[in-house]
What we know:
Blueprint: H1 11-14, H2 38-42, H3 44-48, E1 55-59, E2 62-65
Antiparallel strand pairs: 1-2
Amino acid sequence: MLGASGHVDSFTRDHLPPVEQWPQFLRDDFEYPEYLNAGYALTDGMVAKGFGDHVALIGNGRRRTYKD
C-alpha cells in the first residue's frame, strides 16, 4: 500500500496504525507519481504551471511569489 520512502528516519512510518484503522483517502482528483519531490512540486512546479507571479508565502511583512 505504501511505496518506498526517501526518508532515512522511519519512526513515523513504523508507528502508523493498522491499515484497517486508516481513514478513507479520496484521491480520485489527484495524480501523484510514485516518488514526489514536494519541494519541487510546491515551488518550481507551480512556476512551470504558470503560477509564478501568484503569492506563495506571506510573512515578516513581505509577500513572496512562487518565482521568488
